Every structure is written in C-alpha cells, then in structure tokens.
Amino acid sequence: MNETVIEPILHETKTRAAVQPLVADIQNFAQDVFDTVREPLLVLDAALRVRSANSAFYQTFHVSAAETESRQIYELGNGQWGVTALRTLLEDIVPESTVFNDFELEHDFPHIGRRVMLLNARKLHDELVLLAMEDVTEKRRAQHLLEQIEAYAQDVVDTVREPLLILDSSLRVHSANGAFYQTFHVSAEETENQLIYELGNGQWDIPDLRTLLEDIVPTSSVFNDFELEHDFPHIGRRVMLLNDLEAMAWSIPVLREAEVHVLQEGVAMRGGNIALIAAGTGMGQALLHWVDDRFVPSPSEAGHADFAARTEREITLVRDLTARCGRADVEHVVSGRGFLNLHRVAHREPCRAGIDLDAPDAPALISAAALERRCPGCVETLDMFVDAYGAEAGNLALRTVSTGGLFVGGGIAPKILPAMTTGTFMRAFLAKPPLDAMVAKMPVKIILNAQAGLLGAAVFAAGQR
Question: How many domains does the structure of the chain reveal?
C-alpha cells in the first residue's frame, strides 16, 4: 500500500524536475524579449504598481529601476500618467475589456521634453497588465509639416498670378487657381477632374506636351520653357511659356542643409547675388538680387546663348551642332536633349548599351549606362556633359558675380550625383583665370529637393499676402 502511494509522488517529482529547466528557459526567453523590445514597456500589477520595466523605458525616460519599480504608475515622473482619460482606461476599461489600443498622450516629460506617446495596454492575466508606449512625436511633426505644405500648396493655387494647374498621376486636373479660370474664361466645373487633354478645344493635346507630361516629367521631375502657341477659346491666339524655374529660385533662401549637396563650401557674402542654373528638359538660368531685405529672382534666357567650346572634342561638337541646327547654344549641350547630341559625337562605334536615341527616356538611359560603365561612349557622353555643365555654371557665376552662391537645380543633377561629385564639374567651374580666385570663394550647391519649385511657389505666395 505504501508503495502504491509513493510511486505517483516519485513520478510527479521526476516530472517537475524535468519541467523546471524548461520553465526557467521560457521565463528567461520572455525576459530577453521584454528587455530587447525597442518600445518602452511597463508591467503593472492589479493595484497599478510597476512590477517591472524594460531597458527601453529606462533609456527613453532617463529614469532608474529604483525610481520606477513598486511605485504606482500615477506617481512616476511629474505625474504625466495621471491624466483622467488614462486613469479611466486603466482602472475601468482594461479590467473589463482586457485591452486598449492607440491612446494618445501629449505631455512635457522630465528630461526629454514634450513628446507624443501612443499607448497600448493588454491584460496578461488577472494580476498583470502590460503597457506599451510608442514615441510618435516625429511622426506627428511630419504629419503637421505635410499639412503645412498642403496649406502652402493651396495658397499657391489661390494666390499666384500666373495660371496654374495641379494634375494627379493620371493627368487629370486636381485643382486650378483663380488666374487660370480668369485667363482662360472657364469654370471649376469645366476644369476639375478632366484630363488636361480634354480642356478647352484640345489646346493641351499636342504630341510634344504629351511626351513631356507622360514620359519626361516622371523621370526628370521638371521641365522649363516649353513654348505653346495656340488659338485658345475666348482669348484668341496666345503664346504660353510653361516652366517652374522662377518658382525654384524663390525656394533657394529657405532650403535647409539636408536639401542641398555641397560641392564647394565657399563663403557666402551677405546680400550677395545668388545664381541658379538648372538643366532639365531645357536649360534654365536665373539670378536672385537682394532687394528690400530679401532675395528676388530675375529670370533669363541665357540657356539659348551661344555655347563656347573650350576643348578639341567640344569644337567637334560645335561643328556637328552647327551643321545640324544652324548654331550651337548652351541648351543644345547642357540639357536632356544635350545628352543625345553629345552621344552622337562621343560614339565612334555602336553604343554597347544599345540605346535608341528616339526613345523618350534616352537621356536617362545614357546616364544610367554611363554610371554603370556599360558603354565607353556613354561614359564619355556623361563626362562631356558634366564638364560642360561646370563650365557654364562658372560662366553664370562670373556674369552675375554670384558672391552669395551658385545653386544647381533641375531634375538631372541629383540623378547623376556620383558624376557631379568626381571633381569634373568643379574643375570646369573653377577654370576661370584671371578670376579663378573669385569663383573659388563662391558656395556651390546642388538642390536635392525635388519639390523645390512647389516650395518656392509657396514662398512667393506667402510674400503676396
């Protein structure tokens, strides 16, 4: 009889002995997970006292275990967890529903300042509650900034005196400004949600503009000085120039450090002229003067000035352009179509990348083949482009005495940034004796913000209020 009783006890003892290491492993694993999670975590008991916290909690709130454990959550810090709504959740809702998600708490926390925390809680069992926290401060700031940008964009739409359309990705009109409606004598009902090609009498439905909107803008983000001459309904024959260079120029004084790439630090003279050169579909150049305590852009047509050859290969290029186009201007070389002209001259044998120069994305394909070094002729094409770009930027710096700095805008430069930073651009920029010492002091920066045009339009709109 005694043997019958002792045998189950021995069996249970052996089972426990076998299970205990496994339980210990599970507990250690759970603790490791608890300590590794990057979000701050608290484990509360039934009285809402802190049973434990993870490393992320201590690091985030700059507190120690001694200041935290065994204290009621409402006593922590400067009482930030004692708000009425959170008390209701922890004391009334969690015991009934076992969980709550995305409770937002904004507060001035000790040591770390004002933060927005997103709280989630879950009952582990009758005795414990797990409280998780996510710092969403930067996310909320980004959302607020986006709302500000959208508000600025709406200001642009409502304020800019030139006709303006905002198109969605399918090229339907999202909105237009008052100047558009007034200029073309149309209403919002006749304009919004319509394809751009359906507006008016089809004046926007022309092959070159289709190519720009459907093929070039998605890859280069910008085009300048596209000329459209047409008999418009109600207003007769007009010549319209489509571009965003002047808007981009307005953005320069407010660009942040992260929105530019510095090619030459230089020393900006306060109130000194600033120059903008922008190769995209075309070649745009502008000057910013210091007027009444702010910079005011002045556009130009310098992109159509004569191209000045400096080397034997550029002389060959000028001869080719003169034979085909009648003359060689800067835009024939430093622009999207400049890649095509340079490609013809640089290739003494068939292009190894097999690029079709009639393809709408040929400039992008040429630069990609060059950066990947898939074709020697494309490599030479890109080298000639960057060299000519730097030389023309230096010419603009001299013409405008841009002691406030020279900025490189447009859609091309950011996409070929590795080629722009090899030294080729700056060597050509600086090769301006006897004034090389002057240009060596000028800041030179590439604009990286693809929305610089929109930002500049917002700056202009704000200045018109």
Answer: 4
